[in-house]
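Work through this protein:
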Amino acid sequence: EKAGLITPGKTVLVEPTSGNTGIALAFLAREKGYRCILTMPETMSVERRMMLLALGAEVVLTPKETAVKGAIAKAEEIIAGLGGNGYMLNQFKNPANAKIHRETTGPEIWKDTAGQIDVLVSGVGTGGTLSGTSQYIKGGAGCEFKKAIKTVAVEPQEQMLITAKLGGEKKGPQGPHKIQGIGAGIIPDVLDLDMIDEVVAVHSDDASVMAIKLWLIGLPVGVSAGAIVDAAVKVCRRPESAGKLVVAIIPSFGTLVSPQSYIAQFIHI
């Protein structure tokens, strides 16, 4: 609005999203008087869709086979048909994504750990959280250097694009996965690959198991949080991690997914 790019009551906000950004955008659009259309793969949970609809957004589902790429393409198609009145914030490319984490998440973690953080474990959806937080602490994107922490990126084992991009080898069958919120099927422009020291790939089943374990100790989280905590536990168990402070960012709350969707598979836990 400040830049004059969008106008309440006139501009239609269109965005490909798997949940968190869409929820925030739908809320703001409703409060400020924008029509909001959100595109997402049909594999996204019913709970996510209901939350977005409750906030007044229009939800357009895309085929699961095309993953997030399909949602992006659909959003672009919708904008093309709006006669110049559509606008996409484009969380996968928008530099404001990482910027807000340099300004908020990074300083918060640095302050809360009194600068003692040694390892950051973060999933990669758009890459904004990992990039901005790491840049603030490690001195990227013009930030003052504070500490040479290790940044661990987490991606689905079934879709090891970041691993391959950084020269690693994929393991196991590659294709669709069940970890909503990470593993978008692309390497986002927002993701600062220079900030990544290691990539840990987590299988969807392992992510689901960890998510259930977290529910059972009073932390109702989504499956992406399960993947990230699973990776963090693996990092913490290494001999070289002894005495290190490892911070794992949990990005998904349990209200956006029904635990029944994966509890049934692992009810023996």
